[in-house]
Amino acid sequence: MRLVVDLNRCQGFAKCAFLALDVFTLHGEEALLYTSRFDEALRDQVEQAVAACPVQAILADFSDEPTKGVEGRVG
Ligand code: SF4
To answer: Which atom of ligand 1 is nearest to the CA of 26?
Structure first.
C-alpha cells in the first residue's frame, strides 16, 4: 500500500499528522514529511487522514502491489 501527497494542494494544515502519526510528521509550521509505503496495520489511520485532509491532497492506493518508496516534503 502506498500514498503520495500532492504538494501543490497541501496547505500544511497537519490534520493528517494528528490522525496518522506513524505516516505523517509535521516539521515546523509548514514542512510535512511522510512515508509513502505503509502496511495493513496503518490502513485505518491513512483512511482517516485521507478523509480529513481539507484539500484532498492525499492520494492513497490500498492495493498490495509492491512499490518503491519515496519520501515527500513540502514547506
Ligand atoms: S496533506 Fe492535507 S491534512 Fe496533511 S498537511 Fe497537507 S493539507 Fe494538511
So the answer is: 5
